[in-house]
Amino acid sequence: MLIPFVPKEYFCIKCNDFRLWHAQNETKPHIDLIIDAASFAFDQLFNKLKFKNIRRIEICLYHSNEQAVSCLDRSIPGNMAMAPYSTNKGSLIILQNPIADPINGDLQRMRRMLVHEICHLFVREKSGSTAFLGDGLKDMKVRPWVDEGFAEYLSWLCIGKRNPILQKSFRYIDNLDEVDRLLNDFSSDRRTLAFYTSSFLVQSLIEEFGLNNFFESMTKLYEIRHLPTKRFNGFATSQFF
Ligand SMILES: [Zn+2]
Questions:
Q1: How far is the CA of 80 from the centre of ligand 1 (A)?
Q2: Which of 136, 163, 197 is the last residue of a domain?
């Protein structure tokens, strides 16, 4: 079976919660690191969210950045991971090996990235959303700031450490349409601010409503998308629910 964005010559390893696709000449330490990181991420997320995905999750470990760029048909940095699709037919996370960027050999970072990407897939399934790279998020029922903020909050919760890029203090962006726009603009130098704002906001909401209530409400978040965005002040949560 051909899987979108996965080279047809790649080999497959079946694990409990996912299938890992890799090049024939991929090294065992690289493969073992992904299996370790992904198994950790699934265990932690099942534990915290009590959610079992129905959509099958594939993980593809690209052997080089050139391979990632050619399969995705777009330029991405060597340290980038993403979840290029999630549909009723299945879902995919792509990763790159330490040849693409040595930082990909950092187990703790890979665990955090996998929690983050798996979380995106869970949110899509839970909210009945479909996403495919390049579709402009037209079938996403959850706003980008909720999706990103939730993935980041969960990775912090599971790893016990914040993403290093979020450890400095930043000014928040007080317009959620602007946050959504920046989260999808990979070339913007203000994207980190949008990331920071969404993580902080989701954290505030979860502290007020609880993790499971927040996750359960994913289907209702669709309605929020159609509310006029107000400027928020002190993250008054009532205006979001
Ligand atoms: Zn993300």
A1: 10
A2: 136
